[in-house]
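Table 4 source record.
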Amino acid sequence: MKRVILGLSVLIGAASAACASVTAKTPPDRPALEVPAPPAKVVEPPPRPEPPPEPVPDLPAPQPSNSRPARQPAREPARTDPKPETTTEAAPPPAPVAAPPQLRLPNSPEASEAAKQVQIVIEHAGKSLDSVNPKGFPKARRAVYDDAKRMLTQAQEALKKTDFDNARKLAEKVEQTAKELGAR
């Protein structure tokens, strides 16, 4: 134990001696910075206000109402152009305008095929929803069931409007809701 105390005292003495002999360097003397004088202030006079507009002279007094209005200049007689000669040949009817083709993705089916596919999805969703018995549902679940019925109607309307993507999404949502309602 004496050796430990002796070792510590030697270390403390060496550390204090090392600190005492170290001195910090002083920064070198540098010349003071010369700051330029601020620029002279230029004061501009305020802009002159615009002169007020000149007053308008009074309008002449209105004429009495019983006087006759001024006569308008006579109109030129209507021109009668000679009638163009009529021919027995009728002009050809204009060519029927073809409807522009609908843009589709390369992998998307034709309209009739897409309608069939969406109709199948809607029918399947309707059967799934019909398999759920809403009797005995609490109000919250009954509201979800009623919303699903409305979405199914919206899907059928979207199919009639040839909005196949929206109809498919609605039908898939109805089917998912029907599965959730039936699982509870």
